[in-house]
Amino acid sequence: MSNQELEELRAKVDEINLQLLHLINKRAEIIQEIGNIKTKQGMPRFDPIREREMIDKIRANNNGPFDDNTILHLFKQIFKASLDLQEVDNNKKLLVSRDRHPEDTIVTVGDTEIGKKPIMIAGPCSVESEEQVSIVAKSLVEQGVKLIRGGAFKPRTSPYDFQGLGIEGLKILRKVADNYGLKVVSEIVNPADIEIAPEYVDVIQIGARNMQNFELLKAAGQVNTPILLKRGLAATIEEFLFAAEYIVSRGNTQVILVERGIRTYEKWTRNTLDILAVPIIKQESHLPVIVDISHSAGRKDVAIPIAKAALAAGADGIMVEVHPDPPVALSDANQQLDLNEFNSLMTALKKANFF
Amino acid sequence: MSNQELEELRAKVDEINLQLLHLINKRAEIIQEIGNIKTKQGMPRFDPIREREMIDKIRANNNGPFDDNTILHLFKQIFKASLDLQEVDNNKKLLVSRDRHPEDTIVTVGDTEIGKKPIMIAGPCSVESEEQVSIVAKSLVEQGVKLIRGGAFKPRTSPYDFQGLGIEGLKILRKVADNYGLKVVSEIVNPADIEIAPEYVDVIQIGARNMQNFELLKAAGQVNTPILLKRGLAATIEEFLFAAEYIVSRGNTQVILVERGIRTYEKWTRNTLDILAVPIIKQESHLPVIVDISHSAGRKDVAIPIAKAALAAGADGIMVEVHPDPPVALSDANQQLDLNEFNSLMTALKKANFF
Amino acid sequence: MSNQELEELRAKVDEINLQLLHLINKRAEIIQEIGNIKTKQGMPRFDPIREREMIDKIRANNNGPFDDNTILHLFKQIFKASLDLQEVDNNKKLLVSRDRHPEDTIVTVGDTEIGKKPIMIAGPCSVESEEQVSIVAKSLVEQGVKLIRGGAFKPRTSPYDFQGLGIEGLKILRKVADNYGLKVVSEIVNPADIEIAPEYVDVIQIGARNMQNFELLKAAGQVNTPILLKRGLAATIEEFLFAAEYIVSRGNTQVILVERGIRTYEKWTRNTLDILAVPIIKQESHLPVIVDISHSAGRKDVAIPIAKAALAAGADGIMVEVHPDPPVALSDANQQLDLNEFNSLMTALKKANFF
Amino acid sequence: MSNQELEELRAKVDEINLQLLHLINKRAEIIQEIGNIKTKQGMPRFDPIREREMIDKIRANNNGPFDDNTILHLFKQIFKASLDLQEVDNNKKLLVSRDRHPEDTIVTVGDTEIGKKPIMIAGPCSVESEEQVSIVAKSLVEQGVKLIRGGAFKPRTSPYDFQGLGIEGLKILRKVADNYGLKVVSEIVNPADIEIAPEYVDVIQIGARNMQNFELLKAAGQVNTPILLKRGLAATIEEFLFAAEYIVSRGNTQVILVERGIRTYEKWTRNTLDILAVPIIKQESHLPVIVDISHSAGRKDVAIPIAKAALAAGADGIMVEVHPDPPVALSDANQQLDLNEFNSLMTALKKANFF
């Protein structure tokens, strides 16, 4: 007997489900109409006062069995869905998302197409001298690497640490790169410097500590030079994509994302490389993703397996620090490869058919 | 003109809102009826097959503008709310929650009522000798402290670290405590030892590493001895309350919760004391909450301000490690107070009217 | 017999210990002399090439039983200690440290002396309108609060979120504050704006996302306006102090530090308030420390116990978001207190004798 | 002139360096002698009282320029190095370390040699019925997989969640596995069950929540059945290796380590897969390392790239959850692959030559 009763009740639930479905969609249609009117009038979509009114009316009419909080939670979900729908309609979906732009973005630097096949970006942590940069550049050319990195403006935790050679460092990089037919990747830290940066660098790096320096991101969105944006020390993947959106939404679509590890409690590595972020970002976004194996691990003894893992996970390239004599480097001595170690890394990656 | 149009559309939305409200609540009533039938028949409330069926029907009937994912997300919220409602009906709301038991639980140990006014639990990290424990016990009595803690079974990261004196340690604690009129708090680590523990200890401690050792929790739920449960190294507040629920749901309602810091990236402290957890747990649960100032900070130079902060935040007590000669302690040498430091702490807390 | 042998061996160890002590100190003296010469010549203290040489010689002469790595580790400790000693000699010890400046720094804003007795900074998350700010200002004055906070430049995760009213917002703040005799605290995000900020604000806030925006810190070091510096989302205490050092070392000694919670895995709070940081920073530094109870918790139901805990831990003040109608706020709706809640907070803190 | 002076001072420093080197090593030799005597007498190596004495003498004789704290820090490093040296001498270096056992440990389960070439372990999160397990088993056999996993004892956060079928579940696993020629991997949670487990399972799993349940580890060390040990939710790599040491030091050398992600602030994944841990553990230890791609990601859309990354990083195998109908699974519905998805994963890994 009760089984029959159960079936009858379930049929009622199914019916209500369909009525709810109908009403929710009908509601969405009206909200779309409202949105269109608002767009014509230049009014913002989200109107907190109006939402308040609706909430008050709903609460006043709630007779249970759900309590007010549950009801308001459910309606907020419905409101939010409607708002999201408007955003889709209005093409406000993120420009960096694959939904908006299904094809991979290819960032072209000289004759290198980042996003097409894996690339290597290598060079010293800091630019120290023309000689130092030249030695590394020579090694890079021998290995077929096209992009050299080097820090001229170094954001350092302590004001008393080596802060980089500044413009002088950029000039050294440019000169050496031109001598060896390389392209330059280097960090810019002040919004005011973004405009002159293209004179010296081919790719402007925005460092982890500046990932949410929104003024710098906005400035980066106003040049045509490709931007290499590093994930913040403790940024979520979502925040990382929003940071890229700041750049892209201002017109510069040439953005390369760099996973460089996140801060955790683990002590045997400098950071924890978030390898899951690589395929997730590739899925969510059309921008190329590169893995910085130096800052993530902070130790060079696992460079080869980690570079392989990054490329196997779908990364569009590797970024690594190389120094002619790491123990005397002015910064990050422990994590920079020497030239032999760099050659071994390249050999291993070529042997595994990644390059 | 369009403002009038806007008003008309808004009126329609308000109407639909109320229809939705009505249907959602009506749906909930039917689900309650179904729940009652199921209860009679001893069937589980949640039926994934049935949920599947409903989802399939809804999806088949969705004509937009919402896409299927949005619709299914909204319905899952409604399903979940209905299920929660049933759980409330069926008194499945957590036993540790204040909703179920609005009055504070008072845990009585000897003549100490934990949860009524702030208490102090102090003693050495590890029981090393009768002499060591006696020296501490004497100090405790002089300060009016009633509960002595000391580790006999020490869960240590390395199998080669001092593992505690075991039963021998419990006997020392019992003897000294009886001599000085104190009550004993000590950790038990094996479910098989829970039953005999009350012979030696007045409060069974379950340590941070065992917070999700569910077999130990279940065993602890089957004795009458009060349980002092420490938050796991990286447990959420929610997981902490669920761990307590394992004990309480098996019949032992005498549970004291201990916030002892959580693992973060910060290097200047052993753990990060989650002070927010204190008022949040007090609000969510009726169980007493104590703060372990030794394991959270891992340094004793901030013992006084932190103890004050914990009590100001509403904690029901403080737990602290005290050793006659910390530099020679067999474990946790850096974080144990010596007797003078302990006296200073007690004096400071009394002066601030916490005791 | 072997006990006598043991004693003899121990005597030898003691003798060697004293020889080591003598040599280590003698070495330090010579290093100091070298340092003095270098200072005269304007050479940097740390010379990696020279360190390399020493390491090579030591390694070449090591015959065990310690292996090279252990020996090098021990010598690096000795080198580092010597370098630290030089830094002390050269007054390079951090300017923000209490070792350098034992007395508390008092930051004076109007007639408020921050660092002397606890203060309250309150106001809306974002400046939305003159009316909104005025309503809050009136409440502040009634409660005896002297500093109003409000965001005009809002660093937001998404470029599509409300970014604040900008200069217009600063003008509103200034006007309302002047009407009510209040002082203004507001965030500046672009180094280029630091110079004009004092026209509108009495305290320049540097937000959590900009704690390591070193260009902004440097600019903040070059004005006389007090700076309120928030701890980064995942900054260590050490990094926080170094960030303050960037400002102080450029000449602006009026810095207020704000603990605002750090990012952890916990989901029931927006951030985890690191209460231990309060007494630790007070111990390490002479700068005043304030606790932001809104951003740390991200929920207002625990505002009172957390404010009490912060002050009991030694904080020099509380910062809290207050909005006339939080549910319609353009940002952070969940964590802002309404006026009644703010009055309750003030009443509770006055009753507990904190104000 | 001062350059000559500099050279002379540097020569003195070099001389002192060599004297320090000599004394430190000489000291170590005496400590070794003392250690030998202690070993004969069965005395513990570390003697805190004696260390105290030495410290007191050193402090009494320190005349600077180093302050006492610096001196004591340096001597503690020397003491610690000496103690470490003794531990090496006494073969107390961890049994799980590659220093102790340079060759890879191969764990043999039936005709599968784990640690030799990559393997796959697959199966449902929970054992629900014989039919369910059989469907999965059939798929496994078709793909050449030899080990089936399935949970019979489920450690669940809430006491009201499905706790598994218990012994009944183990019987189902055994029966199905025997029918299909598979080997069984299943979790045991109570030390008391370890002894009977081999009757049903071929590999005993110890779950993440029990990684520091030392009583369970000790019990696992006393059987001959291979143990699959998962890394704790927030365990460091070092703690993970120590947990394995608990098992191996009690005689069971057949231990497989499983990296399954660690808890971080990231919200788009259930855990953060610590890919760096794979090559680091392989370097530090001789034990095989497997990556659980289900619990780390908590989402199945990135299963293929993550499995490739894990194997490219040097993992000895992959562990993945497979269910005939994930949406109706009694646990972890979102992260289990269905049979088609599992087949795609196997095809992708075979095509990439990992299997």
UniProtKB/TrEMBL annotation, chains A, B, C, D:
| SMART domains referenced in this protein's UniProt entry, alphabetically | CM_2
Q: PROSITE patterns attached here? A: CHORISMATE_MUT_2
Which Pfam families would you find in this protein's record? Answer: CM_2 (PF01817), DAHP_synth_1 (PF00793)
User: Any idea which GO molecular function terms this record carries?
Assistant: aldehyde-lyase activity; chorismate mutase activity; transferase activity
Where does the Chorismate mutase domain start and stop, copy by copy?
1-90
Tell me which InterPro entries the record gives.
Aldolase_TIM, Chorismate_mutase_GmP-bac, Class-I_DAHP_synthase, CM_dom_sf, CM_II_prokaryot, DAHP1/KDSA, DAHP_syn_2
Query: Transferase: present as a keyword of the record?
Result: yes
User: Which superkingdom is the protein from?
Assistant: Bacteria
Q: Does the keyword Transferase apply?
A: yes
Biological process according to GO: aromatic amino acid family biosynthetic process; chorismate metabolic process
Q: Which UniProt keywords apply?
A: Transferase
- PANTHER family found in the cross-reference section: PHOSPHO-2-DEHYDRO-3-DEOXYHEPTONATE ALDOLASE, PROTEIN AROA(G)
Q: Which NCBIfam families match?
A: CM_A, DAHP_synth_Bsub, PRK08673.1, PRK12595.1
Write the protein's name. Chorismate mutase
Origin species = Vulcanibacillus modesticaldus
